[in-house]
Amino acid sequence: MAGTGVAAVVFAGTLVTGSCQASEATGFGRLHPEADFLGSSVPVSERAGAVGRRTASVSAVAPDGLPGLDVSHYQKTVDWPGVAARGAKFAYMKATESTTYLDPTFATNYAGSANAGLVRGAYHFGLPDQASGAAQAEFFVANGGGWVNDGKTLPPVLDIEYNPYSTADWAGWCYNRTPAEVTAWLTDFVTTVDDRTGRWPVIYTTRGWWNHCTGGDVTVPAHSPLWISPVASDAGGPPGMPAGWSAYTFYQWAKSGTFPGDQDVFAGTAADLAAFAAGPAS
């Protein structure tokens, strides 16, 4: 591994340390996990022809729902009291990528958001061509992706989107895996997270990626809530749903705005968010 450092992650009273992968060679260049975040591969992939181009802000007006945000190392230091004062009710932050990277800002963001009164959770940037779904799920859960019913912890999230290290075509965007192989990887990941935490992870994805790379799988959506990333064709209206889902739980509606990082909404009330954080456990 090239360019490693040490990160510390605090979760449920446990201090976890691990290596932070700065760069490592792949078939398409060097890994850049510090630059990978929810939706980071979507604009460039869609400009290259995957589906309708996504703009910097798909909707000019926030959709109905509770406001929140998602952040990663990319945002550096976040003023969480200020974020709360501007009305954010929840936050997600990147914890891990593949089986080698720990986001060095995760522990600070995880504690800071909770201390500011936000309900918060962790997400994993999945790379199906780097390690098995089970291996990545185990790494995620061990390094911040767990869940406890404490009233302030949201269920874990899997970010699965266009391969950020690939050629600009569907074979590369789908990690050079068939729909059956992608679906098997996803099933491996979500069932492992559920086994370890008692919660099915939320799936962050786009309609185009899901329908093409999984072949429109409906088995994973039977358990996992949806966090939708829209495309430009969704502007002015609700986002189109990937196969298997009829509604979203979270909606990443803009890449910048009132809060640092991406702008999100939860589809429900404050009471609904509290209930979602609390369970039900499977």
From TrEMBL:
<dbReference type="GO" id="GO:0031640">
    <property type="term" value="P:killing of cells of another organism"/>
</dbReference>
<keyword id="KW-0929">Antimicrobial</keyword>
<dbReference type="InterPro" id="IPR018077">
    <property type="entry name" value="Glyco_hydro_fam25_subgr"/>
</dbReference>
<dbReference type="GO" id="GO:0005576">
    <property type="term" value="C:extracellular region"/>
</dbReference>
<dbReference type="InterPro" id="IPR002053">
    <property type="entry name" value="Glyco_hydro_25"/>
</dbReference>
<dbReference type="GO" id="GO:0003796">
    <property type="term" value="F:lysozyme activity"/>
</dbReference>
<dbReference type="GO" id="GO:0009253">
    <property type="term" value="P:peptidoglycan catabolic process"/>
</dbReference>
<protein>
    <recommendedName>
        <fullName>lysozyme</fullName>
        <ecNumber>3.2.1.17</ecNumber>
    </recommendedName>
</protein>
<keyword id="KW-0964">Secreted</keyword>
<comment type="function">
    <text>This enzyme has both lysozyme (acetylmuramidase) and diacetylmuramidase activities.</text>
</comment>
<keyword id="KW-0326">Glycosidase</keyword>
<keyword id="KW-0378">Hydrolase</keyword>
<keyword id="KW-0081">Bacteriolytic enzyme</keyword>
<comment type="similarity">
    <text>Belongs to the glycosyl hydrolase 25 family.</text>
</comment>
<keyword id="KW-1015">Disulfide bond</keyword>
<dbReference type="GO" id="GO:0042742">
    <property type="term" value="P:defense response to bacterium"/>
</dbReference>
<dbReference type="GO" id="GO:0016998">
    <property type="term" value="P:cell wall macromolecule catabolic process"/>
</dbReference>
<dbReference type="Pfam" id="PF01183">
    <property type="entry name" value="Glyco_hydro_25"/>
</dbReference>
<dbReference type="GO" id="GO:0016052">
    <property type="term" value="P:carbohydrate catabolic process"/>
</dbReference>
<dbReference type="InterPro" id="IPR017853">
    <property type="entry name" value="GH"/>
</dbReference>
